[in-house]
Amino acid sequence: MKYQEIRSQARSILKEKCKVCEDCNGIACRGQVPGVGGKGLGSSFIRNRVMVRETSLNLDTLVPATETDTSVTLFGKKFRFPFFAAPIGALEINYHPSLNDLTYNEHMVAGCREAGIMAFTGDGAKMEYYEGPLKIIQDNEGVGAPTIKPWDNAMALQKIRMAEAHGVTALAMDVDAAGLVLLAMAGTPVYNKSVEELKELCDSTALPMILKGIMTPAGALKALEAGAAGIVVSNHGGRVMDDAPSTIEVLPAIAEAVKGKLTIFIDGGFRSGEDILKALALGADAVLIGRPFAVAAYGGGTEGVRVYAEKIGQELKEAMIMTGCHSLADATPDKCWKR
Ligand SMILES: Cc1cc2nc3c(=O)[nH]c(=O)nc-3n(C[C@H](O)[C@H](O)[C@H](O)COP(=O)(O)O)c2cc1C
Fold first, then answer.
1. Whose Cα sits closest to atom 2 in ligand 1?
2. Which of 79, 184, 213, 291 lies in disulfide reach of 189, CB 3.0 to 4.6 Å?
3. How far is the CA of 70 from the centre of ligand 1 (A)?
4. What's the pLDDT tens digit per position in 293-324?
5. Domain 3-57+67-325, CATH homologous superfamily name and number
6. Which residues bind glyoxylate (predicted)?
7. 87 CB less than 6 Å from ligand 1?
8. pLDDT per position as a tens digit, 204-248
């Protein structure tokens, strides 16, 4: 399948909830939560995308011609590209019932693995939507990272044990889901987490723990203190609070605080290979992409996911050639142009 076919197929399926816009920027879907948009006026989602667009890469081709290496090694595993699929949950409600949290993750985990990368899977009120993806990850040689909600520690510990039993690569917790009242209404409340509580979880497992939803240097230092292996600089795609800063704006200060001590992921508005390179140049080790991977899965299933990943992988390689980067280590802040 060609990428444009995947998109037009997705457009015909998703028409009510997601317009599959040329630039997935949060404008057409603003305020649609449930749905695919950002909360409130959608300003956090929109700002994520605007600020990624406003970050420019600049040309630097006067370097020796050598192979361009797009690979990254994280948590002992080598990946072909430094980007991954972000966890997306409640698919039937947010997108369309043609995929649910199980069938979606079947496509996502397999498609990412075929492309040499990894999918993060989600969690929710129903245990089957956590356990099902765990089995899918296990069937894919453990290449995948489940993301648990900030439940009380007893429930979180139970879910950590389940992840360990399925041989996953890493385990994330979206700590920025603390305010999701819908989960409390479903009888499964989520909470703010203290450093002590997080430390109990991190200390309990040999799995690398990634805290998703960190937006300040102070938050990143707390993650470090708690024993996390990584963080995702994220505002949950703008879905948990209106008027947050964009993730790419807060990245440099966070990188200054914890680069080399924690693996730094970022997400929010990254769409192309050029966008990935901008994030790496400003201090991220890898990028998660949410909505465009969901569109790829709806429009083309496993193949759609693989085709989208290959497409941005190729864009990344070309952007690296144009900015004089032989490997990801060459993606330094000077690759971004400043006014
Ligand atoms: C419909 C939808 C559902 C989501 N569900 C989850 C989830 O269950 N767990 C989670 O950690 N993040 C969830 N996210 C947030 C994404 O993982 C990611 O942080 C965000 O989509 C990144 O922004 P982008 O879509 O602009 O790339 C969801 C996002 C969307 C759009």
1. 88
2. 184
3. 25
4. 999 999 999 999 999 999 999 999 999 999 99
5. Aldolase class I (3.20.20.70)
6. 239
7. yes
8. 999 999 999 999 999 999 999 999 999 999 999 999 999 999 999
